[in-house]
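User:
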Amino acid sequence: MTFAFLAYVGLIPFIPLIGAYIYKRRDDKTRRYVCYALAVIQLFLSLMYAAHWLKYYV
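Assistant: Predicted structure:
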């Protein structure tokens, strides 16, 4: 269960990067930068959730 949770948490920050790639091809800088910001925020949240999981459930 721990491996599945950590794998899921590790993959979530890559979803906004797919959007950033799409907007890069469309040459839409504003939405691309929003996707980058979302990826950074999601990476931070994922790291915090993973640390919490490892601290209390392992």
